[in-house]
TrEMBL record:
Subunit structure, as described in the record: Consists of a catalytic RNA component and at least 4-5 protein subunits.
PANTHER family named among the record's database cross-references: RIBONUCLEASE P PROTEIN SUBUNIT P29, RIBONUCLEASE P SUBUNIT P29
EC number: 3.1.26.5
Family under the similarity heading: Belongs to the eukaryotic/archaeal RNase P protein component 1 family.
UniProt keyword list: Cytoplasm, Endonuclease, Hydrolase, Nuclease, tRNA processing
HAMAP family: RNase_P_1 (MF_00754)
InterPro entries from the UniProt entry: RNase_P/MRP_Rpp29-subunit, RNase_P/MRP_Rpp29_sf, RNP1, Rof/RNase_P-like, Rpp29/RNP1
Organism annotation: Pyrococcus kukulkanii
Presence of the UniProt keyword Transmembrane helix in the record: no
Name of protein: Ribonuclease P protein component 1
Reactions catalysed, as given in the entry: Endonucleolytic cleavage of RNA, removing 5'-extranucleotides from tRNA precursor
Location within or outside the cell: Cytoplasm
Entries under Pfam families matching the protein: RNase_P-MRP_p29
UniProt cross-references to SMART domains, sorted A to Z: POP4
């Protein structure tokens, strides 16, 4: 067993180390059939994966200005791929989503907290 080998920097040669690392720097556009149906009224109940997003406000200043495409969503975080991969918490940020027709929708992250499939069942006040 080689423990202190200098040649063995990467554990998996030929592959990236983390998830989503292989799509960094590529032109990646989600071409889902649902993407054109997002509007201001239904974005909370809609699938967010594939939408272009930008963080416009946050209690943590390091998150402000992050932009890219959403590639994964958990109960409390969004995984955004742009120049690199970020895992951004939903509850401390204000997000600006860009729809297919170019309209920009600002939503506080507190309204997005929850698993995507459970967000459909929630009742929101208009």
């Amino acid at each position: 067993m080689r423990r202190n080998s200098k040649e063995r920097k990467d554990r998996a040669p030929g592959r990236s180390q983390g998830p989503y690392q292989e799509i960094i720097g590529r032109t990646w556009i989600f071409r889902g059939s649902h993407r054109g149906r997002v509007n201001r009224k239904n974005i909370i109940w809609h699938e967010l994966i594939g939408l272009r997003v930008r963080v416009v406000g946050s209690t943590h200043p390091g998150f402000v200005g992050i932009e890219g495409y959403i590639v994964d969503e958990t109960r409390n975080t969004l995984v955004i791929v742009g120049e690199k991969v970020w895992r951004v918490p939903k509850n401390v940020c204000i997000f600006e989503f860009e729809t297919e027709d170019g309209t920009k929708i600002k939503i506080p992250g507190e309204r997005l907290v929850g698993r995507p499939e459970m967000r459909l069942k929630k009742r929101w006040r208009k």
